[in-house]
Amino acid sequence: MNSSLLTSLVILCCIINIATSLDAALETVSKHGRLSVSGTQLMDSHGQPVQLKGMSLFWSVWMPYYWNRATVDSIHSACHSNIVRAAMAIEYEGYLDHPDVEMQRMETIIEAAIANDIYVIVDWHDWNGEKHLSQAKDFFDKISKKYGSYPNILYETYNEPIDISWSAIVKPYHLSVISTIRSNDPDNVILLGVPHYDQELDQAADDPITGQNNIMYTLHFYANENKQWLRDRAQNVIRQGLPIFVSEYGTCDGSGNGSIDAAETQLWYNWLDQNHMSYVNWALSDKDESASSQIAGTPPEQACQDRYLTESGRIVVAQNKK
Ligand SMILES: *[C@@H]1O[C@H](CO)[C@@H](O)[C@H](O)[C@H]1NC(C)=O
């Protein structure tokens, strides 16, 4: 075999390998262990690329009836997920006003994820994180002390910065929260939001955080609004070396409602799988809007069972299973 043929075969094998996504329910923490970031790729403890696929819970304050063990059991087994995102509200009567209530909800989800052998994103679900830095540091200090030794944990320090400067405001915020987490937990992955609802990745690529291990930047997309232009932007920053994690995506509009664009969602899945990236759907919710994966009144024990899935839920669960 000549060397160019060999090279082609090796490339072909890797494309096939990388483009194949798996039933996420089977890709558990005991199989993949502690995560790390190598270049732009999320890796498992065996030094192999790993892809996480799963569900985000809805805002804790508005859907507390899904913040329990039964829902996380369903997310793992019936929604075919190896990750759950705990979107803990900060404003809107959330953590700032009721830290004990919200902490209890968060711990319930973390412990349910550990019991299910899946990963969990501890999400500081804030749009104004820079105004609540001291509360965020205190929260992540407590969480990383208590749970930092578990390989299940990923931290998301700031859900979606809106239209503020990366270099002047968002980056200093992240550096401060990272230092708090790293004083307790040296290695679990930390996910970092970027301006304009986690879409202006280029600002971060131009001025990345250096000298830190196991950090990734979050990309959020909603397929009925964010199309090829956003994939092109993301592909560019990957070329620049920025590791990306999709901690939230929807099949519809960014508002959470509007039309579902199944074809565009499929283009996103193709691109994500080719890049072996992780993605988490918004949301495990039964609200009357397009982004909800469950019909109204779905009991936690039945979440993601066929008869309780919405149009969006059917797309998402089929993809998680692939
Ligand atoms: C979403 O849109 C549908 C159809 O227009 C509407 O009936 C529903 O009330 C909307 N949901 C919310 C939460 O606004």
TrEMBL record:
Signal peptide (residue range): 1-21
| One Pfam family linked to the record | Cellulase
List GO molecular-function terms, semicolon-separated: hydrolase activity, hydrolyzing O-glycosyl compounds
**Keywords recorded for this protein, A-Z:** Glycosidase, Hydrolase, Signal
Domain of life (superkingdom): Eukaryota
Claim: Signal is one of the keywords in the record: yes
What are the GO BP annotations of this UniProt entry?
polysaccharide catabolic process
* Annotated Glycoside hydrolase family domain residues: 43-287
Q: Which family does it belong to?
A: Belongs to the glycosyl hydrolase 5 (cellulase A) family.
Its name, as the record gives it, is Glycoside hydrolase family 5 domain-containing protein
Which organism encodes this protein? Rhamnusium bicolor
